[in-house]
Specification:
Strand content: under 5%
Distance between the termini: 67 Å
Helix content: 55-70%
Order of helices and strands: HHHEHHHHE
Mean pLDDT: 86
Low-confidence stretches: 1-21
Number of strands: 2
Radius of gyration: 18 Å
Strand order of the largest sheet: 1-2
Number of helices: 7
Number of domains: 1
Oligomer: single chain
Structural class: mainly alpha
Length: 133
């Protein structure tokens, strides 16, 4: 009897759509993930910006993101994986990785960063995560 219950449970899990297996990110979590990605990219690609210590944590707290530390680790892991760096696989969160892939296409690859830096740098400043040097 136990074996048949296990088989039924496993078959339901395997046949479930991915959305039923993993919870989608809330709008606040998506915003936090996007701002976290910006906080990684803007200081590297854009001159004149520096990250404010504790700014990202305050942004997450103000937005109601209670799992900011977990999401931050997931962004770092996904960013590192995408850029050939080392990462802890246990930190990956599929929804975060997909959001980074979706948002990451906005990052220019050809060195034309002026409008990107204005938009994303401005977003970081507006959210008190970065400031001008």
């Amino acid at each position: 009897m136990r074996f048949s219950s296990l088989v039924v449970a496993l078959s339901m899990l395997v046949s479930s759509p991915p959305a039923a297996i993993a919870d989608a990110l809330s709008a606040e979590q998506e915003s936090f993930v996007t701002v976290t990605l910006a906080s990684l990219v803007v200081p590297i690609k854009c001159d004149g910006y520096e990250i404010i210590d504790g700014g990202l944590r305050r942004f997450g707290d103000a937005a109601g993101v209670v799992d900011g530390d977990r999401l931050f680790r997931a962004v770092i892991a996904a960013f590192s994986a995408a850029n050939g760096g080392e990462y802890d696989r246990g930190d990956l969160v599929p929804e975060v990785t997909r959001k980074l892939n979706e948002v990451g296409v906005q990052i220019p690859k050809d060195g034309k960063f002026k409008s990107f830096c204005q938009k994303w740098g401005g977003m970081l400043i507006a959210n008190h995560v970065a400031q001008r040097k």
